[in-house]
Design a protein that fits this description.
The structure holds two protein chains of two kinds. Chain A is an alpha/beta fold. Chain A contains ten helices and 20 strands. Chain A has a domain of 273 residues. In chain A, the strands form two sheets. Chain A has a ten-stranded mixed β-sheet, covered by helices on one side. The C terminus of chain A is likely disordered. By secondary structure, chain B is of the alpha/beta class. Chain B has a single domain, classed as Rossmann fold. Chain B has eight helices and twelve strands. Chain B starts with a strand and ends with a helix. The relative contact order of chain B is 0.18. The chains are: A alpha/beta, B alpha/beta.
Chain lengths: 452, 249
């Protein structure tokens, strides 16, 4: 299963794909060796219990040697939140596309550059952080990404700089990108008392079957503030594995939102370590799938210092015969007294064939903490549907409005209004087919069949 | 306007309505009274199309149409309105959005143009006054966190917006203090027109001091056991339901 990747690595290296500073090739070699040793995770691995990546392992995906994209600026319009004026870095089929990117409107103190340029222009920042935050010893997808990483973005916000305009990293895959594997690697560095907003989008213009294996590392300075939105709208036949790892020193704030609605199979890992007192994290997300889609989120919040707070709300809407997985780990180390931790995962099943495995996991080794967690699974409320219909709303409208209402409170947590509005629209439009919920809203008290 | 013939309905296999006959004409107010469990709320729910109730026999015609063959939303679009005994909370959907959506669906069904949010606010202004509500209520989620009285007033607000031809008030008086009761009754009376009709379902005579019925029907054991003029309600208040339900046995 790993063999094609090992062979491709030799090609990649001999073609100069492994370019970079001297310290890098040994890291790549070590990562590749680790990937070969670990192999793809199997359901025997506890972290992958509910998600089989056999379909990824058994398919052959290859890197695209050169950019082949025939993507025009107007193709990107639906994905820009109406804000083409935001600094936008575009990757087509995994390759940086400078002609589609707009990198010239950055405020002073903010550097955003392609990884290939960063090897030259910011080697010290890369050396300090890259592969130091997202380690690959136990993560074979991160190991694989590290071996191949060549396209990606460095975002560096200097201390005390408030970068208000969101920086958009947009991955686009065009319809011809079949059997392509991409290993985007991003490094976001926000120095002391600085703040930034970064959006990572993964979108598709067609229905190709490809594999995105992304890794994002985030280094925050003391008192830094980063809002980080990951928007996964891959093709319905694609595979997506995305890992974000964060280190949070004293008084840093990290607000993460993961929106996942695409891909045949997706796995999103978001891990943060609260290393300094007063650090705070918000980890929110919304996943919406149907058909045969599989969507998996694993989050890990490690409280490694006293007086830190974590707030986590994930919501899921599952139709058709889709399968959702949520595993939220919160660890509170012995030193992390006065931890304030809240975690919640709520799911809405739109069909009898949809399935959710939710596993909130709270492990506390300190004695003076305030932690709560909970998970719910429900269906559309038949009485609410009847109430709306009794006011003249057609069944389909009532159903969509209720689905939207379920997601509304987590979407409200998005601080960038343009993103919030766009995701609200996507949520309203996501489940429009009547057949999806044909047998859903049969609640305990209803005798007759209700079509919703 | 409404003609109910030999209506039977059950829930979870238990027969609740066992042969209701009732005729309501335009311009009339009918009160349906009865003790708990007599089936009066079931009658209201069946007329609105609640899916939990199964109609096992009988017919209902509304403006000459077979009401029972219509979906709940079709009934609403045709002018039937049920003020719920227990209005449903819908967190995440604002009252304004909900009301405007309902209003526009009715307009669409009638071949009228939809109104935009700004014009709709104008429509709302006097309707809010009718039920003594602040416009801040419009920004709150539908019934979410509303007090009992606010929920009932919100029902009448919806009625004021949708201007039904046949309004069915299901125990709208329950849980209301006397001031709220007056507000609600005033709203209902203001909405009365020669071409619409109201069915007031209530346990107590109290509401009928404010919404004066043309006819009063007493339901017991799933049947109408006595009908009369507005004085029947007073007689019931004085003598209790045993007076008539005894006659039903």
């Amino acid at each position: 299963m790993t063999q094609p990747y090992l062979a491709d690595f030799e090609t990649f290296s001999s073609n100069g794909g492994g370019a970079g500073p001297d310290w890098l090739p040994p890291v790549r070699r070590a990562a590749l060796a680790r990937f070969a040793a670990l192999g793809f995770p199997t359901p025997r691995n506890e972290d992958w219990h509910f998600t089989s990546v056999a379909a990824i392992a058994e398919s052959e995906f290859h890197p695209l040697p050169v950019s082949s994209g025939d993507v025009k600026p107007e193709d990107l319009a639906p994905f820009l939140f109406g804000r083409g004026d935001w600094p936008t870095f575009v990757f087509v089929n995994g390759r940086y596309a400078p002609e589609l990117s707009a990198a010239d409107n950055l405020p002073l103190g903010v550097r955003v550059m392609h990884l290939a340029r960063a090897w030259r222009d910011a080697p010290d920042v890369l050396e300090r952080h890259l592969s130091k935050i997202a380690t690959f010893d136990e993560h074979s997808f991160t190991a694989l990404n590290t071996a191949f990483m060549s396209d990606g973005t460095l975002v560096h916000v200097a201390k005390d700089v408030q970068a208000d305009a969101p920086i958009h990293i947009l991955h686009v895959v065009d319809p011809i990108a079949a059997r392509v594997v991409m290993h985007p690697r991003h490094l976001l560095v926000v120095d002391r008392q600085a703040s930034a907003r970064v959006i990572e989008s993964y979108v598709s213009l067609g229905n190709a079957r490809y594999f995105t294996n992304a890794v994002t590392e985030i280094a925050l300075g003391e008192g830094a503030h980063l809002a980080h939105y990951k928007i996964q709208r891959e093709s319905q036949r694609a595979f997506h594995v995305g890992t974000t790892e964060v280190r949070q020193p004293r008084d840093s704030k990290y607000a993460s939102f993961s929106f996942a609605t695409g891909a045949a199979l997706s796995r999103t890992n978001i891990y943060t370590t609260l290393e300094g007192e007063g650090a705070e994290v918000w980890m929110n997300g919304l996943y919406m799938v149907d058909g045969e889609q599989h969507v998996d989120h694993q989050t890990r919040i490690e409280h490694a210092a006293p007086n830190c707070a974590s707030h986590e709300v994930y919501k899921g809407i599952l139709g058709g015969a889709s399968h959702g997985v949520f595993n939220g780990k919160v660890f509170v180390r012995p030193i992390a007294q006065k931890t304030d931790g809240k975690q919640e995962n709520n799911n809405l099943l739109l069909s009898d064939k949809a399935r959710i495995d939710t596993k909130p996991q709270l492990e506390i080794f300190a004695d003076d903490v305030k932690c709560t967690h909970g998970a719910t699974v429900g269906k559309l409320d038949a009485l609410s549907l009847f109430y709306m219909k009794s006011r003249g709303l057609p069944a389909e409208v009532a159903r969509r409005l209720l689905i939207y209402a379920f997601a509304a409170d987590v979407l409200e947590r998005l601080e960038v209004a343009e993103v919030r509005d766009a995701l609200e629209d996507l949520t309203l439009a996501r489940f429009t087919r009547m057949d999806e919920g044909a047998e859903t809203a049969e609640s305990a008290e209803s005798a007759g069949a209700i079509r919703v | 306007m409404l003609e109910i013939r030999n209506l039977h309905a059950s829930v979870d296999g238990n027969a609740i309505l066992k042969g209701i006959d009732l005729e309501v004409k335009a311009g009339e107010v009918h009160a349906v009274m009865g003790p708990n469990g007599s089936g009066k709320s079931t009658l209201a729910q069946v007329l609105a199309g609640h899916p939990a109730y199964e109609v096992t026999a009988g017919e209902v015609y509304y403006q000459g149409r077979d009401l029972l063959a219509m979906e709940p939303e079709e009934r609403a679009q045709a002018g039937v309105f049920l003020a719920f005994q227990y209005p449903v909370e819908i967190p995440g959907v604002s009252n304004a959005y909900f009301l405007r959506s309902a209003y526009n669906e009715l307009r669409k069904a009638r071949g009228q143009e939809e109104v935009d949010p700004l014009d709709f606010l104008q429509v709302m202004e006097d309707r809010l006054k009718l039920v003594d509500m602040e416009d801040t209520m419009l920004n709150r989620s539908v019934n979410a966190g509303f007090s009992g009285g606010e929920k009932k007033r919100n029902e009448i607000l919806q009625m004021a917006v949708l201007q039904p031809t046949l309004a069915i008030l299901d125990e709208t008086d329950s849980g209301l203090d006397i001031d709220a009761l007056r507000v609600v009754a005033h709203g209902v009376n203001q909405l009365k027109r020669p071409d619409n009709a109201t069915i007031v379902v209530t346990h107590y005579q109290r509401l009928l001091n404010y919404i004066v019925p043309d006819r009063v029907h007493v339901l017991a054991g799933g049947r109408i056991v006595k009908s009369g003029g507005k004085d029947l309600a007073l007689e019931l208040e004085a003598k209790g339901y045993d007076w008539v339900t005894g006659a039903a046995a």
